[in-house]
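User: My advisor asked me to double-check a structure prediction for UDP-N-acetylglucosamine 2-epimerase (non-hydrolyzing) before group meeting. I don't want to rely on an old file, so could you generate it fresh from this sequence?
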Amino acid sequence: MEKIKVMSVFGTRPEAIKMAPLIKELEKYSEIQSKICVTAQHREMLDQVLDLFNIEPDYDLNIMKEKQSLSGITTSVLNNLEKIFQEENPHIVLVHGDTTTTFAASLAAFYNKIKIGHVEAGLRSYDKYFPYPEEMNRKLTGALADLHFAPTIRNMENLIKEGVKEDNIFITGNTVIDAMNFTVEEEYIFNNEELNKINYNKKVILVTAHRRENWGEGIDNICKALLEIKTKNEDVEVIYLVHLNPVVKDAVFRCLGGVEGIHLLPPLDTKETHNLMKKCYFIMTDSGGIQEEAPHLGKPVLVLRDVTERIEAVEAGTVRIVGTSKENIVKEANDLVNINKEYLKMSKATNPYGDGRASERIVSKIIEYFNKKV
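Assistant: Sure, here is a fresh prediction for UDP-N-acetylglucosamine 2-epimerase (non-hydrolyzing) from the sequence you gave:
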């Protein structure tokens, strides 16, 4: 019997983290021929994840350019994948989530009449500019996809409302939980020496904030809030993993550079980040993925955005949306620092994103789907 040729396409660090356990699962099955194509929409951060999981791509488009535009990424992916898809002719292309690589790869697969499997399907904020461009990337990918691997029941319901047939939607949990089962260690020692020197008996707040919609006033307000939180709470230490984009980096260092008890560090690799999340007290972020990862570790999350597509975490009580108002950020953070019952309410809530077997379920459904087609 002909093997099922599965081509996984991804280009950023968040995609790689969540696709890595799925790729490892695909390798276990003799009836599957797994192919990997990376676009390198992010280069260095992507390579860190590939090294961590020992993944060797079959194709590397290496499209990253300085000051790359969204339209430039889209056209580069489309043009490069055309040749590869025609040469490989996979049975299905797997894409993940909501990046520009995801949408462009789905469009390229559609143009070549190749089946599309969308991992982490069905997330919606219902505001096309928040997050930007991710909300439209995932909606457009959903319109093109044939198989929809939804992490939660709510994600499935979102897709059904948009006209996707229920038979083509599979609730799997989120593959990021699979990844964390690989990366988090009990007695972890950091490669970054500054992290080893921090007193984790204090209330360490981990911060990441870099999204486009927060550039300018949003980042400024977040930084001012962090300064006030640290000033008012002697037992708090802040670790801000500062994105390398100059728009973000310059603003953060201008406000917080040299402040005692606030550690401004570059982005860490995946293993370092996951283990730092485990050691911290709580997290403030505008990231989507961290909203899924932190509940697995029992860490409360304050979301530095006005909307989130991870509604399940809000409903479960592990995540709270605080926006980018300085006053609101300070209030909510101080509540977690100083009111134990508020902290326990969030830290003890149930993780809504699954049991770490999402990759196994996805591969099983792919095999089942193509066996039916034979």
